[in-house]
Recover the amino acids of this structure.
């Protein structure tokens, strides 16, 4: 039982490391835009979504209406819908309260870090407790510290930590690719997302590319 | 004390972020999905990871950058090789951090 929690913490290590520079950067930006440490704490606790928080801080500073900020957040974070849905076939053995708690912690990073364990079957609630607790603790701590330090620290990318999350995505992606079909799905997802970046706003390039590339995968299933 | 505006913004942002996270998982685990939908859902991890990754590696400052000065692109190469050869996530991430730090100094 305890091992499961530790397994979750271990899975969270690259996520937690990767959140440090981004969290610090968000905190610094938020302080510059006039947000207090309490604002940052509650936003990181209750929203817990990097790109949306950056956009919101900029919109708050520019005096945007609350409704506009909230709607933009909705659009930017809608991709979690796909991730949450794709976990469903593997988590049928867990109760609704546990599922609700697990899903509150879904980010791009925790989703990617937890999926291999979930898809292996019968993942435990404790694994997700470990993964989500350490990941979000890192996000909350780094954003609040960034806000408290304000402009007092030099650029965190000097430490190379800004590449921790892309490196983690590379690792998880290439470890999951097992067949020719997987490679084609990855190429489709990546190139469509790149092309759509210049056409679609608010992370919709990611949603559109994911939906389309997953269809490509289903079609190739039929061939095999 | 938090400003009322900020309170409203954070609560609103929280609702619209958490509902799409919670609802699919809670609802779809309680119904049985058609096999075709399950097969489609199983493609999502690779599709979404590549969709997140490729723009983050190739785009810098709003444009596609395929030059040797694109640090993310260069640092990605040893990571990909290690991920494929070793299947070790920790080693891949560590290599990425070290390479990225070295590139900061060199470039």
């Amino acid at each position: 039982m305890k091992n499961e929690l530790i397994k979750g913490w271990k899975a969270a290590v690259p996520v937690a490391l990767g959140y440090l520079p981004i969290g610090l950067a968000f905190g610094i930006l938020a302080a510059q835009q006039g947000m207090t440490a309490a604002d940052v704490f509650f936003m990181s606790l209750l929203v817990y979504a990097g790109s949306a928080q950056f956009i919101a801080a900029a919109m708050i500073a520019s005096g945007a209406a609350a409704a506009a900020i909230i709607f933009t957040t909705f659009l930017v974070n809608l991709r979690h819908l796909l991730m949450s849905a794709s976990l469903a076939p593997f988590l049928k053995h867990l109760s609704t309260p546990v599922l609700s708690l697990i899903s509150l912690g879904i980010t791009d990073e925790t989703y990617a870090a937890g999926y291999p364990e979930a898809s292996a079957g019968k993942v435990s609630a404790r694994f997700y407790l470990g993964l989500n607790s350490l990941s979000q603790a890192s996000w909350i701590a780094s954003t609040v510290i960034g806000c408290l330090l304000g402009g007092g620290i030099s650029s965190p990318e000097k430490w190379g930590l800004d590449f921790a999350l892309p490196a983690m995505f590379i690792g998880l992606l290439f470890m999951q690719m097992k067949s020719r079909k997987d490679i084609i799905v990855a190429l489709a997802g990546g190139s469509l997302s790149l092309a759509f970046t210049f056409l679609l706003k608010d992370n919709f390039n990611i949603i559109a590319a994911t939906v389309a590339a997953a269809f490509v995968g289903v079609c190739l299933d039929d061939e095999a | 004390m938090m400003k009322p505006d900020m309170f409203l913004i954070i609560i609103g942002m929280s609702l619209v972020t958490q509902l799409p996270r919670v609802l699919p998982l809670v609802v779809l685990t309680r119904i049985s999905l058609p096999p075709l939908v399950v097969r489609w859902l199983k493609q999502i991890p690779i599709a979404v990871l590549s969709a997140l990754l490729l723009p983050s590696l190739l785009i810098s400052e709003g444009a596609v950058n395929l030059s040797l000065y694109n640090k993310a692109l260069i640092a990605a190469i040893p990571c990909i090789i290690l991920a494929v050869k070793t299947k070790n996530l920790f080693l891949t991430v560590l290599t990425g951090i070290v390479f990225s730090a070295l590139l900061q100094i060199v470039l």
About this structure: Chain A has two domains: 2-176, 177-224. Residues 2-176 of chain A form one domain. Chain A touches chain B through 96 residues (CB under 8 Å).
